[in-house]
Fold:
Amino acid sequence: MTDWTAPGAHVVADGVFRVPLGMPGDGLHAINVYALETTDGLALIDGGWRTPTSFDELASALRGVAHDVAAIHDVYVTHVHRDHYTLAVELRRRFGTRVHLGRDEAPGLHELLEIGSNVPVTSLRQLRRSGDAGLAAAIEVMAAGEEFDAEGWEKPDVWLEPGQYAVGGRALEAVATPGHTKGHLVYHDLDAGLLFAGDHLLPTISPSIGFELGEWDSPLASYLRSLELVLQRPDARMLPAHGAPGSSAHARAAELLEHHDVRLAETVRALDARGTATASDVARVLTWTRRRRSYDDLDDFNKMIATCETIAHLDVLVERGEAQVVHDPDGALFSAA
Structure:
């Protein structure tokens, strides 16, 4: 099997190259940015993470297909996470590249610029709501100790609304797919049958839900609706931000909907077994990742992700009438309906 993280510019369609950029110390290993040939040079779908090596990796890959990194005139970002956004800011600083981002990412980016740190304050609120103030405190200390890359965070040139945009000779439709973040966009090239899926559709994992700054607005419910939206659109080849390109966006969206149906059923069974429980209690009963690891085998960051995903599933069960919640001073208590 070919290693999807192998450096270079890999042809995925006529005039479209996939460029994996390394993500040091991150379990996702790399991010795919997609370079589109245009009459004026290049446009990117997603910018990548501004690391000490990422600019040189991008420049080297593009040289390999006879393109100059300075020819990148626009970056269309799927969402505001650092591995998608911050190298785009660096490209603008060096070359005047225009940066485009979905308008619904504005509240999260504005809050990030205001707090100026890596502390995931919204996730910490959900950890406390989930009954695990101790983990919240540990994550806060860990994140506060990480260096904040202030130069990687600025407002975009263009706040995008959903709709069609001309990118060189292509018509890309920006489609709102909230869930992973509120302002997540996928870019659909209907003529070429390509879906630049960002983190909305990933080939081997389900993306984290609601890991962003700002209000917590039932992110899993939004994500499930966004998966249904993909199924209502023409099928396309899935070009994800992490992992190898897939053959069918419809097939992967259907798999992810099935995955979350299974996960919701597992969550109900965990509630039935415990009677009344916090989201943290439920997260400790469930297993995690494709390898079905126990909660105790996860590091603190992934325990946070697991607990926040659990409360997102519990919120959906409450909305569907399959669970109920009573508020408690130490967090929300849930039980099966």
